[in-house]
Amino acid sequence: MLSFEPYGNPTYFALLGVALLPLMIGLLYGKRSRLYETLISIFFLVLTFGGPKWTQGVALIIYILYEVALTWGYAVYRKHQNSGPIFYLMVILAIIPLTIVKVTPAVENGQASLIGFLGVSYLTFRAVQTMMETRDGTLKDYQVMTFLQFMLFFPTISSGPIDRYRRFEADYRSVPDREKYLGMIQKGIRYIFVGFLYKFILAYYFGTMLMPKLQVMAMHSRGGFLDLSWPVLGYMYAYSADLFFDFAGYSLFAVGTSYIMGIATPMNFNQPWRSPNIKDFWNRWHITLSFWFRDFIYMRLVFWFMKHKVFKKPTTTANVTYIINMLVMGFWHGVTWYYITYGLFHGCALVINDTWLRYKKKHRASVPHNGFTQVFAIFLTANMVCFSFLIFSGMLDKLWFH
Amino acid sequence: MAKRLLRIFGPLILAAILVFAVLAMPVTWGFSHVSAARERQAAVSLSPNVLRGKHMKEQALKDGYVPFFGSSEWSRFDPMHPSVLAQKYKRSYRPFLLGARGSQSLTQYFVMQNIQGELRNKKAVFVISPQWFVKNGTRKDAFGFYYSQLQTAEWLTHFRHDAIDQYAAQRLLQMPAANSDHFIYAALQCVAKGEKLTDFQRFYLQTRKNMLTQEDQFFSGIDLPSQNLNRVNQQAKKLPTHYSYSALDRLGGQLGKAATGDNRFHISDKFYKQGLKKELKTGNLKNFQKNLSYTKSPEFADFQLCLDQFSRLNTNVLFIIPPINARWQKYTGLSATMLKQFDQKIHYQLQSQGFNNIVDLSNKGNVPYFMTDTIHLGWRGWLAVDKKVNPFLSKQQPQPHYAISDKFYSKQWQNLAPSDLKQYEADNK
Questions:
Q1: Residue A354, SS3?
Q2: What is the sign of the dihedral through the CA atoms of A225, A230, A231 and A237?
Q3: Is the CB of B1 less than 8 angstroms away from the CB of A185?
Q4: Is residue A233 very low, low, confident or very high in pLDDT (cuts 50, 70, 90)?
């Protein structure tokens, strides 16, 4: 039985090319065949979740049925009534599977949960978002079939980008005109090829060739202050480069494939290493995730705090929400001290950044702003981010506790 | 539209054709030459890429290097290491070290597959580690680490239908690594069942072999580690200008004494302090090998693959059986009787088939400064090896006469209790 990591090897891309060819021809002639799209989706889902990984496949099917029942049920209910507690209950029910998957390794000595599968987080984000927009009333016409296509859209199922139901639906229901679609193909192909460079050359170099060596060196050089050494610094940069090129490469594949299917899935990265501050960084790094957190956690919390007048000053509201927001993101990565510390670190960084920007605005005359400060800001931000990734990598955990 | 499509897909198609052409065509593209300096480097690099590849090994063996099959002992570079002695005293041979931590018989069998021309009617050295012969044989992850599609493809393009191939295919199918190419996996299933390969399978394997051969030519020389060659050069400086066994043996003792300090096992202090000391404090190591046995293992059949291959290629092989540090053995409770039994079993497998060049050092575990650490040869141990290896490789040797027996692939042999060995010998006379 064939079984693949999505975008994992040349065979997968060859199969992808063959499967997409009829679809491409169809779209060029203004036709979108739902049936064909569904068939190749199922084919690639079986490749990803079948064979030796069939238990994941079963978990996926049960999970999907569960989320469909919840979102559909809520959409029907919402047409007639709109009670807060019911909404909260539904959201909690929707995130229970993800919570179990994330907490299980922490309480079961690192053992993965039986109900987990590749991409459970990303599906939960999509389901919760559908529910929230139903509650807001912005999503009025919930359709089970569209929801299924949206959830199970194979190019993005395993690791995003996290699309939005209404945006996806608009693309999915229409066929781009030929000129526009040719542009999409061109972009799609380019994205996939940049992805090859990122994932199979750069991430391979940093992640597979450099990182293990640096890790061994770092473990051998323990004993100094906090067991830190030069190899740890090298590891920090190599890990950051690997994380970026691996994930950005993967995202480029997912977006590129979507484009070829005539779906303009949003981009996940936008030159994050040139961010002058941490807030800007989160607008450029894993964009669909941070925007999801912004829209469905940060904004909602800020409104709730303001509505209930929890804090006097709006800045306090913003600061507390930053910390909560990033802590939730930390927990989402997994219940380990380093993911949570990573979240807290970014929460604090956002608070400090906001304070500094306010200070700078007030004292515009005395704070210099020139080419040098710009470069310095970018340098500082990039290094802070790399340091946070060192925490995130779990390397400190290995250095100190193993 | 056609024009625009051509602009988008033209370069892609062209690139695909070019890449495929370069990789699939059996042309050497002028990469065939390997400089003497790179051969020196590759011979001691212990790099997994070199082991998995073909090009470097093949070229070096053609230029007078001799394959030294083994495992982790090769990384113990001290002045008496075979590579250092051969370089310093300008021997007529140079060792090409094949194997590193975790490489066992099955890996070595596949390593031999694409250097057959260089093994035929030649000589080789083979270090048999008793530690390989544990209950489950080679570790699947270690085998996977050294697994080479190139070697497997090469083997599948020249295999014959007999016990050796069937056993090798069955054994390979038990390894997760075999699954890395679906077509190779399917071909292995055919070989394991004794079926013929289809024309398509043969075509695929041939094409795949060509591609992997090209890849190996292009890439296996990249990132060749140089630190081991530097080590060899460093260690050679510590040796006297002229070879004298007694002088070197004295020097080995002195070097050993200086390096071992006063730890309880009389082993390299560097090794001792690298984790072992910490581990000893927990007390977990005391008697932890009490129930370990090297007498029943699939490794005996894997090892037979190597013997079978040597016999087919008429390779004259010198086998070395290293000892275990006696102090370590006593401390960890490893049974001396069991080690003796292992020794008898492996001797029978070798000698009953005509492999009579055996350097059995298994009773030297208590000779001072013979072992650099718990299970690896060092200083005087390496010198004892050299004493046999040098004449074997430098002088003309009588033609070996091998008489291979397929019974060594059987489960019965793999799991034969040492107490039954005498009876077995009598039955099979």
A1: helix
A2: positive
A3: no
A4: very high
Other residues' Cβ atoms within 10 Å of the Cβ of residue B8 = 17
Q: How confident is the model at residue B241 (pLDDT cuts 50, 70, 90)?
A: very high
- The gap between the terminal CA atoms of chain A, to the nearest Å, is 38
* Interface list for chain A against chain B, based on CB atoms closer than 8 Å: 2, 11, 28, 178, 182, 185-186, 189, 193, 209
Coil, helix or strand at residue B316: strand
What is the Cα–Cα distance from A237 to B166, expressed in whole angstroms? 48
Q: Tell me the average pLDDT of chain A.
A: 93
Q: How far apart are the first and last CA of chain B?
A: 81
Give the phi and the psi of residue B121 in degrees, each rounded to 5.
60, 20
Question: What SS3 state is found at B98?
Answer: strand
Question: Minimal Cα–Cα distance from B128 to chain A, Å?
Answer: 28
| Dihedral of the alpha carbons of B404, B406, B407, B413, in degrees to the nearest 10 | 90
Q: For residue B114, which of B165, B150, B168 has the smallest C-alpha distance?
A: B150
Neighbouring C-beta atoms of residue B3, cutoff 10 Å: 8
CB contact under 8 A, A182 and B9: no
The yes/no answer to whether this complex scores an ipTM above 0.90 is no
Chain A neighbors of B182, CB-CB under 8 A: 2, 11
Q: Is the pLDDT assigned to residue B356 strictly greater than 70?
A: yes
Distance CA A149, CA A80 (A): 26
B3, pLDDT greater than 80? yes
Q: What is the dihedral of CA A253, A256, A261, A267, to 10 degrees?
A: 100
> B186 to chain A: which residues are within 8 Å by CB?
none
